[in-house]
Amino acid sequence: MRAPSAEVTAAAERQVPGTPRVRIVRLVPDSPHLLALVRWEVAQWGHLAPDRRLDQALDTFHAQCGEGGKPSVFVALSGDSPVGMASLIDDDMHDRPALNPWLASVYVCPEWRGLGIASRLVRRVEQEASEHGIATLHLFTPDRQALYGRLGWCAVEVRDYRGERVTIMRRELTR
């Protein structure tokens, strides 16, 4: 396992002057924040799997709280309060098994948006992937193409997925 580059580490630690300190940490399976993050995920993307119950989503999310590599979930914390999250998972688009792994569940609470937290979460997942020998990541988004484009992601396909028009994007990680 390689040490993270200074650029990646700096990106993960950068914060906007004058804003509360936000730290990015790995979510552990017994975290008191697990249920809150699952609720965010269901509220934000539950329409993509309308038959999935909260307890099923909790089980899935719990299993994604790995110790390193994939799967992993990261949470942005202000003090002890979660303000955002992002995941590194194996499968986020079930009909595209060749595209893996995935950056998934990038979410920042509305009142915390515009402070660079999403970018820091994305960079932290990229760092995790790179440290574990992953050369390429994928994601899909219906509306955040500009954010990911600024972070070096490239659009590879636009398609309908479970009733929503999404863009599949790819990021080649430097080693």
Structural features, described:
The chain has 175 residues and is α+β, with helices and mostly antiparallel strands. The protein is 29% helix and 29% strand. The strands form two sheets. Strands 1-2-3-4 form a four-stranded antiparallel beta sheet, with helices on both faces. A three-stranded antiparallel beta sheet has the order 5-7-6. The N and C termini lie close together (11 Å). The relative contact order is 0.17.
Topology:
Layout: H1 6-13, E1 22-26, H2 34-45, H3 54-63, E2 72-78, E3 81-89, E4 102-108, H4 117-131, E5 136-141, H5 145-150, E6 154-161, E7 164-172
Antiparallel strand pairs: 1-2, 2-3, 3-4, 5-7, 6-7
Helix pairs in contact: 1-4, 2-3
Name the descriptors.
about 180 residues; alpha+beta; Aminopeptidase; four-stranded antiparallel β-sheet; 7 strands; about 30% helix; disordered N terminus
Number of domains: 1
* Principal-axis shape: globular
CATH names the topology as Aminopeptidase
Helix content: 25-40%
Output the CATH homologous superfamily: Gcn5-related N-acetyltransferase (GNAT)
Tally of alpha and pi helices: 5
Which regions are unreliable across 5 or more consecutive residues at pLDDT < 50?
1-16
Radius of gyration based on Cα positions: 15 Å
Number of strands: 7
SS-based structural class?
alpha+beta
